[in-house]
Amino acid sequence: MTSVLWLRRDLRRRDHPALLAAREAAGDGDLVVAFVVDPRLWDGGGAARRAWLAATLEATNEAYGGALTLLHGDPRRVVPELAARVGATSVHVSRETTPAGRTRDGAVAARLGENGVEWVETGTPYAVGPGLVVNGTGEPYKVFTPFSKAWRAHGWPEPAPTPSELPLRHARNDADATAAVQAALAAPDLPELPPVGEEAALARWRAFRERSLAAYSDHRNRPDLDGTSRLSPYLKLGVLHPRTLLADLAAERGKGAHTYANELAWREFYADVLWHQPRTAWEDLRPEMSRIRYDEPVDAIEAWKAGRTGFPIVDAGMRQLLAQGWMHNRLRMVTASFLTKDLHVWWPVGARHFLDHLVDGDIASNNHGWQWVAGTGTDASPYFRVFNPVTQGLRFDPDGAYVRRWVPELAHLSGAAAHEPWDDPQGYAHGYPERIVDHARERLEALSRLEATKR
After folding, report:
1. Which class does domain 126-156+198-276 fall in?
2. 66-120: per-residue pLDDT in tens?
C-alpha cells in the first residue's frame, strides 16, 4: 500500500504523530511526503514570510532525504490528484485548527472520500489540541489564568518516537512549486532570517536552556538582552513541536521554566479561542468594543510602519520587524498600543502588517495578541490602559542599547537619553524625526472614545 503525508504546519521528522501514522499505514509499501504551495496563501503573505517558509521547505526536503514532493495549486484539487497518481489508500495530516484550514481540510477529505481514499488526522500543532481544555460545565475558558491551570492539569503525551527508516517515494515536483520556492529565496531586500531546520532549532533550544532559561522570568521583557528563546519562527512552521519543549521543561526546576511553559500556554490559549470563536480572526471578540470610533491617518500609519514616529522605542521595534522579520514581544505590545491608542487605528490594520512581515506570524497568537493590547479581546488589557512609549523604553531598555541598535540617528545619545531626544540639544542632530503626536493628549482622546461607547 501507499500512504501520503501532507505536511503543513509540521515541517519536521521528530515528534511527529502523523508521520508515524502514515508510516504504519504504508506497511511494506511506499510513503509519499508532500507539501502544497497554495497560491492563495503563498501570495498573500510578505516576502519575509515566503522566504522563511521556502528555506524551511528546503531544510525539510533534506531531512526527508530529498524525497519531499512539492505541489502547486488548490489543495482541494492537487491532493486528491496526488493520491490518485501514486495509488494512495490514505492521506495523513496533523489536524488543522484555524478557520480557513478547517474549511479547506473538510473539502479535501470529502473529495478523497469520494475516491475511496481514507483521510486520517493525527495530532495538532499544539501540546493540547484546541477544544480539548474545557471547564467543569464543558464550556471553553474565556480567561487565560484558569485556562492555563486546566491546560497543565489536562497534560499532554510524551514526544512521539522518530522513525529510523522510512519507505520514501518521490512523486515528482510541480515546476510551478519549485519556481515559487526559488523565487521566494531570491527576493530582493530580504530580512536577516534565522538558521533553518530541525537541527538549528534544537541547537537554539539547547543554548537557551543552558544560558538563559534560569533568568527568563527576569529578562524576557528586556529587548536589549538576548533573554528569549527566539523559537517562535520554528514553532510557527512546526519545525519544533511544543510538546518536545514541554518534555524538556519537565526536567527543569525554577521560575524560569514555569514562566516559559506559561508562554507556551498563551499560544495554546489563543488557538483555543480561535477554535471556538472563528470570527475573532478579524473581528473584535468583545462586540461592545466595536462601537469605538477609529481614524485612518494614512501618513501616520505609514510613519508607524517605517519606524518614523519620533518615539524611539516604537521606532526601534518597527525597524527590527523590517530588518529581521521578527520583533521582541514587549515591543509588539508597545507598537500595537501606539497604533491603536495614540493613532486611534483599528487593530486589524496593524495585525495585517505584522502578518506580512513576521516570520513567526500566526493568526491566532498575532490577532488575539493585538486584541489584548487594543482592549477588545479575551483576557483583555483594559482599553483604558495605554502604554506610555517613553516609560516603557526607560523601564525595559534602561541603557538605551536596543534603541541605539535599531535607530542609528540616536546612536550619539548615551544611556537613557536615547529615549528622550527632545530633551537633548543634539537630539535631532542626525535626522531623527520629531514626534508625530502628543502622547498625553492622545491618551486622553482614547479614554474619551471609550467613554463614548458607554452612552
Report:
1. mainly alpha
2. 999 999 999 999 999 999 999 999 999 999 999 999 999 999 999 999 999 999 9
Q: How large is the average pLDDT for residues 26-48?
A: 94
Segment 273-283 mean pLDDT:
96
Q: How far apart are CA 218 and CA 225, in angstroms?
A: 11
Q: Is the pLDDT of residue 308 over 90?
A: yes
Q: Which three cell numbers stand for residue 321?
A: 520587524
Put the strands of the sheet holding 118-121 in their side by side order. Answer: 68-72, 30-37, 2-7, 88-93, 118-121
CATH H-level, domain 287-452: superfamily: DNA Cyclobutane Dipyrimidine Photolyase, subunit A, domain 3 (1.10.579.10)
- Our measurement of the distance from residue 113's CA atom to the centroid of its chain's CA atoms, rounded to an integer in Å, reads 32
Query: Angle at the Cα of 215 (from 214 to 217), degrees rounded to 5?
Result: 105
- For residues 26 and 246, give the distance between their C-alpha atoms in angstroms, rounded to a whole number: 30
Residue 226 CB partners (closer than 8 Å, separation 6+):
212
Query: For residue 366, what is its C-alpha cell?
Result: 498575532
pLDDT-based confidence at residue 178 (cuts at 50, 70, 90): very high
Judged by DSSP in three states, 90 sits in strand
Q: What is the pLDDT of residues 352-364, one digit of tens each?
A: 999 999 999 999 9
The answer to whether 36 and 170 have CB atoms below 8 angstroms apart is: no
User: What DSSP string describes 144-212?
Assistant: HHHHHHHHHHH--PPPPPPPS---B------HHHHHHHHHHHT-TT---PPPPSHHHHHHHHHHHHHHT
| pLDDT at res. 273 | 97
The CATH architecture to which 2-124 belongs is 3-Layer(aba) Sandwich (3.40)
The C-alpha cell 546612536 sits at 411
The pLDDT mean for the chain works out to 96
